[in-house]
Design brief:
mainly alpha, 201 residues
Length: 201
Amino acid sequence: MSELLAFIDLGFHHIVNPEAADHILFLLALAAIYRPQDWRSALWVVTAFTVGHSITLALAVTNTLALPTAWIEFLIPVTIVATGIENLVVRNRSRTLRGGHYRPVLSGVFGLVHGAGFANYLHSLFMAQVAVPLFGFNVGIELGQILVLSVAAVLFVAIDRGIERLGRLERGGRALRWRVVGVSVCVIGIATRWAAERAPW
C-alpha cells in the first residue's frame, strides 16, 4: 500500500507542479470553452484525454512502444496550440461536424502524445513490477487533473462575471466568447514559444 500511495503522490505532484506547466496549459485550453452547465461535454473530453494518455503511458513504460523524447517534447506544445486554435476557429459548435462531438476524439489523440511525455518522466522509476506504480501514477495524475480543472472552473466563472460587469454583456453569451478568446490566445502564445524552443531539427 505504501508503494501505491507513493506513486499516487508522485503522479499528483507531477501534474500540479509548475514544472508540468505544459500539461496544465493543455487542460486549460481544453476547458476554456465550457461553462458549469456544460459539465457533461467537458467530462467526455477529459475522459478521452485520460484514456489516451493512459494507453501511451502503459505501452511506453512497459517497453512495448519506443518513442523519441525530442519529438514528444515538441509535439506536446503543438497539441496545446492546436487546441487553442480550435477554440478560436469554432464559434458555433452545434453547426460543426456531428455537433462538435468530435472533440473527445481530438482530446484522446492528443492524450496519446501527453502520455508519452508522462512516460519519459516515469520510465526510469520502474522496476521489474510495473502494475502498482503504473496504476498509482495514473490515479495521481487524475487527482491532479481534477484539482487543476476545479480551480480553472472557479476562475473561468469569475472571469465571465467580471467581463459581464465591466462590459455590461449578456450573461453567458458574449462574455463566454471573450473568455475563450483571451484564454486561447494566451495559451497559443506560450505554447508556440515552447514549440519553437523544443523543435527537434
